Amino acid sequence: MTVYGVGLGPGDPKLVTVKGRDILDSVTTVYSPGRLSRTVARQHVPSSRIGDLDFPMTRDPDKLRRAWKDAANAVAEKAMSDDVAFVTLGDPNVYSTFGHLRRTLSAFHPAISVEVIPGVSAMTAFATALDIEIESGTGLSLREAANGSAPTGPDRMILFKVTDAVETHEKLTAAGYNVQFGRRLFMEQGETMITTDPTEIAERDYYTLAYAEREGIEQTVPTAAFNTSSEESV
To answer: In this protein, which residues make up the domain named Tetrapyrrole methylase (predicted)?
Structure first.
């Protein structure tokens, strides 16, 4: 049988893909790594079909490896006779906890089939929430910015895990970037926030993103001329 890694999207239950929803309807058990993904899954799956897995709040690598091995054992045992799913926010292959399960299954249960059902990533949904167009030919970098980190270099960046917005903002503006922040976008849990003022989101929150664009960037696509105030016909 098969273990499906199903991407739930950025948090809105309506942004789960049709295929993802079909898989959730078809499997006998749906496992979740956390409260937020479980909340979204419950909009599509009755609680009786949601399985429990225990993940400790720790950075100890030995404890984490044991936890993932225990989780893989539980999932594999169920998958010996039935199709099951492991859900995660965003896309299972983009900065996702599903990678830990997949690697552990591969190491200890290589006979178990694994299939990924992609989901809408929080990073791409973020551009929509800010009404930012990443036009054709644009260079865009995806970076992690935890604990005040502020990677620079590319003209446009989407940063995730922004846990110190104030420090990240200070460093990026000093490097010549304009910065916008978004928190818990498309989520029903917690306050949704879009702002250019980092002090409004100074409290640490794992689900905070930032869009940084170097000052003076010009659009080069042909239709960019339609955004100008020129009276000249094009």
So the answer is: 2-143
